[in-house]
Amino acid sequence: MNEKISRILDIPIEITAVLGKTRMPLNEILELGKGSLVELDTLENQEVEILVNGKKIAYGQVVISQQNFGIKITSVLESEELVNSLK
């Protein structure tokens, strides 16, 4: 492996899957409690955004395996889109 690349391989990054978004008035948020349901704007079977350090890099589908949730990457942004998302 390239020595220059090996120096950065242990740098932690944050990966986030955005399942959906919503807007709610503050009074509704204050009423949330255990068992509350928050409706998101993402439809069933719609691809979710995958972010790395807060920047969108790909899309994926939610999968369940042995009672665990995961994300299957379905597409990665093209180089030009990736560069634009970093701005």
Automatic annotation (TrEMBL):
Domain of life of the native organism: Bacteria
Recorded GO MF terms: cytoskeletal motor activity
Domain Flagellar motor switch protein FliN-like C-terminal: residue ranges: 7-77
Gene of this entry: fliN_1
Name the record gives this protein: Flagellar motor switch protein
Organism: Clostridium disporicum
Similarity comment: Belongs to the FliN/MopA/SpaO family.
Keywords: Cell membrane, Cell projection, Chemotaxis, Cilium, Flagellar rotation, Flagellum, Membrane
Residues spanning the signal sequence: none
UniProt key word Magnesium: no
